[in-house]
């Protein structure tokens, strides 16, 4: 299991049930740790070698699942009242490490496609997206991390 260095961030192993006609990938149940309600679910893709820069939600809890490909997530905690201030968590999820990454509000996240071709991300968020509850840093260098 990957080491989580950021307060409130969870990494939950998920079941992948193999079937000769197509696999079943579990995502989330309302009884799972990390479930804090349902607002919306959406898919996002990222190509190999691309990086989507830093963003932080003020209220939304993110639940990332990567059923196809591989995506590397870097999380940065700059919360003043956190027990893990200025810490980073770096984890790669995908077909060979099928887990759900739960990211609480107030934590920065950026991610890169590391699987060949197109990589698929599912976010099971507890709130509907609102532009006023997210902050973005368009430059990766705004938070110093060696990618």
Structure, described:
- By secondary structure, the protein is mostly beta strands.
- It is about 0% helix and about 45% strand.
- The protein contains no helices and twelve strands.
- The chain has a five-stranded antiparallel beta sheet, with no helix packed on it.
- β2 (about 15) and β3 (about 25) form a beta hairpin.
- The radius of gyration is 15 Å and the shape is globular.
- The model has no long low-confidence stretch (mean pLDDT about 95).
List the helices and strands and how they pair.
Elements: E1 10-13, E2 16-17, E3 24-25, E4 40-47, E5 51-57, E6 62-68, E7 70-77, E8 87-94, E9 99-103, E10 108-113, E11 118-125, E12 134-136
Antiparallel strand pairs: 1-9, 2-3, 4-11, 5-10, 5-12, 6-9, 6-11, 7-8, 7-10
